[in-house]
Every structure is written in structure tokens, then in C-alpha cells.
Amino acid sequence: MAGFLTRWLRPGPTMTAEEAELEPGKLPRHVAIIMDGNGRWAGKRGLPRVAGHRAGVEALRDIVRACVDWGIAILTVYAFSTENWKRPQEEIEALMNLLVEYVRRELPELKEKGVQVRAIGRLEALPLAAREELARARRETAGNSRLILNVALNYGGRAELVDACRRVTGEVLAGKLRPEDIDEDVIKGALYTGDLPDPDLLIRPSGEMRLSNFLLWQLAYTELWFADIYWPDFRRENLRQALLAYQQRERRFGGLKI
Ligand code: FPP
User: Fold this and answer.
1) Where are the domains of the chain?
2) What is the CATH number of domain 26-156+198-247?
3) Atom 6 (ligand 1): residue with closest C-alpha?
4) Active-site residue, 36 included
């Protein structure tokens, strides 16, 4: 037993982060990631931006595997924002094709590993092929519970709040809800992530330090972790560093240390 306990040591003055181990009881339940820096990664190599997105898919594969291995319950990744439609048509099409390709290629392994695939955002605006593949992935993995992989597509935090307001207003107009009964739980329940706990940890690589309209309601008390590498270079060791840093954080949710 002592041997087991000493394996889960925390980084401290005599131990580097590389030597420290993850503590299963202190891992975040829900990790959110802004997969940023694909374009810059490609630019640095003289490659087209799409090559960066393709390399970004490899990073995603590695991180999904790590989350399964380490018992993370939910992973939400930002793959396409409501603002990304402003990009050149060629890049948008390439991203949508990558999504279809990703689902087709990864679904067997995701199923085998017990991953449940979900998507959040205004999905109705996505191309038909993307919607069909997402629906298939959702249907075929609905019974899985090891990891929920939540892919944000045509997602915007403000759009999500608008959609939540519309849903709640619809309930009020239908006479199912009184305005005075609207509270934070009602709003939370009307979000795309209504049945999920808020992220415990948000990771943003690429050196940018902003939320970029991601999960605006849900991130209210989330721990933030930024990395100076581009998403295509992000691997399980980088995730491990983020999780080790998270283990050191003291979460008070506006209260006092107990
Ligand atoms: C941000 O980097 C990344 C995106 C807009 C797309 C993220 C998509 C993937 C990682 C691959 C596709 C996802 C799936 C689920 C198949 P950027 O292009 O804004 O990079 P930059 O800031 O360096 O230009």
C-alpha cells in the first residue's frame, strides 16, 4: 500500500514536474481545450494552413487516448467557431472534410475504447456530410461512458446563450415555466452542455491568453492553463503538465479555504 501511495507524489521543492505523478483522485473531471495555433504551426514550416489542421487532428488523437488512459470523464474541444466562417472558403471546406475523415477513421477505435462522441454548437449550419457523420458517431457511441468527447462545431459562447434564452422563453410562452422560476440551474440546463458538469480545467496552447467566445457561462470557475506551443505539437506529456499544474491549484469557488 505504501508503494502505491508514494507513486502519487506531487511536484515539490525536491521533485520536478517530470518526476511527479498524476493523482487519480485529484484529476479534473472535465477538461476543455481550445485547439489553437494550427495555422502558425504550418506557416513556420512553409506549409499551407490546412496541413496545420491535419497535424492538429493527430494531436487530438493522442489527447483523446491519454484522457481515456488517465480516467478523464469529459473532454470538450473547440474545433470550429461561429466566427471561423470568416476564413477562406477553401480552409472551411478543408476543416469540414477533416471532420468527416476524422469520424470515419477514428470511430472504430473510439467505440472500442468506450468513448461517447457528442457535438455542440449550431450544427444545423454544417454541411450535410459532416452532420451525417456526427449523427452516426453519436448514435453508435451513445451507450459508451468511459470518456465523453464533446466537439464544439459552429460553436460560439454568445450564440449558445442566445439559444438558451430562446429555449427558456419558449418554455415561458408555453406556460411551462414562470419568469420568477428562472434561476441559474434553468439557464444551465438550457445550454448545449446542460447535462454536463462545467469544465474544471481549460487548456489553451499557442501562447494566446483569451477565451475566444468558448464556453462563456461554463468557464466561470474553471482553472485556466496556457502553453507556449502550437496545438499540432501538443501531446500527452503536455496534457500531463497541465494536469499536474491543476493538482496544485486550490479551488475555492468564491468561498474560503476550508
Ligand atoms: C485554431 O487554429 C484551430 C482551428 C480553427 C481548427 C481546429 C481544428 C482541428 C484541430 C482539426 C479538426 C478537428 C476535428 C475534430 C477533426 P488556427 O487555425 O486559428 O491557428 P492560428 O491562430 O495559428 O492561425
Assistant:
1) 26-156+198-247
2) 3.40.1180.10
3) 79
4) yes
238 in catalytic set: no
- Ligand 1 contacts CB of residue 169 (under 6 A): no
Instruction: Please give the model's pTM, rounded to 2 decimal places.
Output: 0.92
**Which residue in this structure is represented by grid cell 467557431?**
81
| 206 pLDDT more than 50 | yes
User: Alpha-carbon distance 230 to 212, whole Å?
Assistant: 16
255 falls in which pLDDT band (50, 70, 90)? Answer: confident
Query: C-alpha angle with apex 167: 161 to 171, nearest 5 degrees?
Result: 140
pLDDT recorded at residue 3: 40
Give the pLDDT band (50/70/90) at residue 251: confident
**Cβ density class 26-59: b for 16+ within 10 Å, e for less:** ebbebbbbbbbbbbbbbeeeeeebbbbbbbbbeb
Q: What is the pLDDT of residues 92-118, one digit of tens each?
A: 999 999 999 999 999 999 999 999 999
Pocket of ligand 1 contains residue 55 by CB under 6 Å: no
Q: Of residues 38, 69, 84, 144, which has the active-site annotation?
A: 84
- Could you tell me if the CB of 155 is within 6 A of ligand 1? no
From the CB of residue 121, how many other CB atoms can be counted at a distance below 10 Å?
Answer: 22
pLDDT of 147-177, one tens digit each?
999 999 999 999 999 999 999 999 999 999 9
CA atoms of 91 and 167, how far apart (whole Å): 33
